[in-house]
Amino acid sequence: MTHALPKIAWIGLGIMGSPMSENLLKAGYDVTGHTLEQDKLDRLTAAGGTAAASVAEAVADADVIITMVPASPQVEAVAYGPAGILENARASALLIDMSSITPQTSVDLAAAARDKGIRVLDAPVSGGEAGAIEAVLSIMVGGDQADFDEARPLFEALGRTVVRCGPHGSGQTVKAANQLIVAVNIQACAEAVVFLEKSGVDLAAALDVLAGGLAGSTVLTRKKDNFLRRDFRPGFRIDLHHKDMGIVTDAARTVGAALPVGAVVAQLVASLRAQGDGGLDHSALLRTVERLSGDRV
Known about the structure:
Layout: E1 7-11, H1 17-26, E2 30-34, H2 38-46, E3 50-51, H3 55-59, E4 64-67, H4 72-79, H5 85-88, E5 94-97, H6 103-114, E6 119-122, E7 125-126, H7 128-134, E8 137-142, H8 145-156, E9 159-166, H9 170-198, H10 203-211, H11 218-229, H12 238-255, H13 260-277, H14 285-292
Parallel strand pairs: 1-2, 1-4, 2-3, 4-5, 5-6, 8-9
Antiparallel strand pairs: 7-8
C-alpha cells in the first residue's frame, strides 16, 4: 500500500454508529470516537478504536470526520460553536454526515464548512441495524464528485450500494424518499398481517408466499419475523421515523409535491408515538392496525 488510510473521527456511536465504526476498524482504519454514553465508548475501545472525551479532541487529528447522530439539532450541536467540529477540525478535512436530517441543514452545513476550508458530504444510509452490522447499507450521497471519489473506499467498507445523487442536500432528499417508501410499505404489510390473522390463515405460510411474489419487498423480508413474533425491539425506532416523516412532508411541501398516502402514514406513525410506542421498532405500526381493528394491544 503506497499511502496510509485516512485517520477517522467518529461522532455518535448509537444503534447504527457503533457497528459502522467497527466495520471501519475491521477494514484497517484508525478510528477515534466520541459519544455521550460511556458504555458505547468502552465498546469502541474493545473493538480496537480510541475513545475521545470531547468532539474537539476526537476531530483534532482527523483526515475524515463522520457524524451519525439522531437529527438536525444534534448535527448542529456537534458541528457549530467553539467546541464543535468546524472550529476544531483541520482545514482540508472531509466531514461526512451520515445522519438523516433535513436537506437544508446539509446545504447550510456545507456552506459554513467551506469558510473553514472543510469539505462536506451528506451521506445518509438505509438498511437499519442489520444493514449496519452486515456492512450492506445503501448509502446516498450529496456533495462534490471529487470528495465523493475520495470517500468511496470508506463507504464501501460500510455499505453495498453507494451512489452520489447530486449536490449538497441530495443525499438527504433521497433518504427522505426512502423513509416515505419504507413507512408506507410497513403499513401495508401490517394491514395484511391483521387481515390474514383475522381470516384464520397460517400467517407464516402466507408471508412466505407473499414474499416470493410481486408483493415481496426488502421490508417484508427484513420485518417478517418482527410481525410473526410481535418482536418490536428497535432496529429503527418509531421516534426516528416520526422525525423522518416530518422531513419528507416538509420538503415535499417546499417543492410542491403531493404525498397523500405518505401524509396518512405520517399521522399513523404520530399516533403510534402518542400511544407511547415511540421507542419500539417501526414494524410496530402493526400495533396501530391492531388497535384500529378492535384488538387489545
